[in-house]
User: Fold (2Fe-2S)-binding protein from Lentzea miocenica.
Amino acid sequence: MSEFAEVLEALRRVRGINPFFALDVGRPDDTWLPGTALLEGPALKTTIDAIAIRYEAEEPRVAASLFFLSYTARLLSPLTAANIPIDVRPENLWWHHHPVNGLSVRIDQPRLGPPAAEALEPVVEAIQAVTPVARGLLWGNAMSNIAGALKMVVRARMLTAEEAEERGERLMSAPPFEQAGEFISFPGEVTFRRRSCCLYYRVAAGGKCGDCPLVK
Assistant:
């Protein structure tokens, strides 16, 4: 099987789990921006500012966290389920932010690429360049989405809870995820507790997530 066909087949196999696992391919219409616009120019800051307005987030770091939480959910959910290194570097992405419908992301070419952490690192750096937000918080958001994806994969009966937890533990054995949190043994379910907080509780209608370290 060619690389092109392998990636398309992997994405097809997982897209039905739920909408976060549906990663589309190909160039969209002109309302979308290339992924490289995340790294240079005003688009990233403009989007973070729009998120702050939508969620009534008084602190820029809260809006930055919500942006990366959404961005990584749309990329890491299908990648975690597919379990192959699909190329999600900014240069192979298109993205679009709608003030009501939020963030949409798609890849340009169905091809293999570097590990997800390597692909996400330039976006982490770009966010930190425009907004003072901790790296550990951002990578905690990414790992939280990985754990959430594993939970859904188990519920779709594509993996057992033990297999999913093992996959998650392997990811957390190396930077930048090694301090992100821990998996908690619970029969038949993937349960994760992160070490950082995504700050969602600091928006006007927010609350604490199920894996939040502040939940007692």
Remarks:
- The longest strand covers residues 93-98.
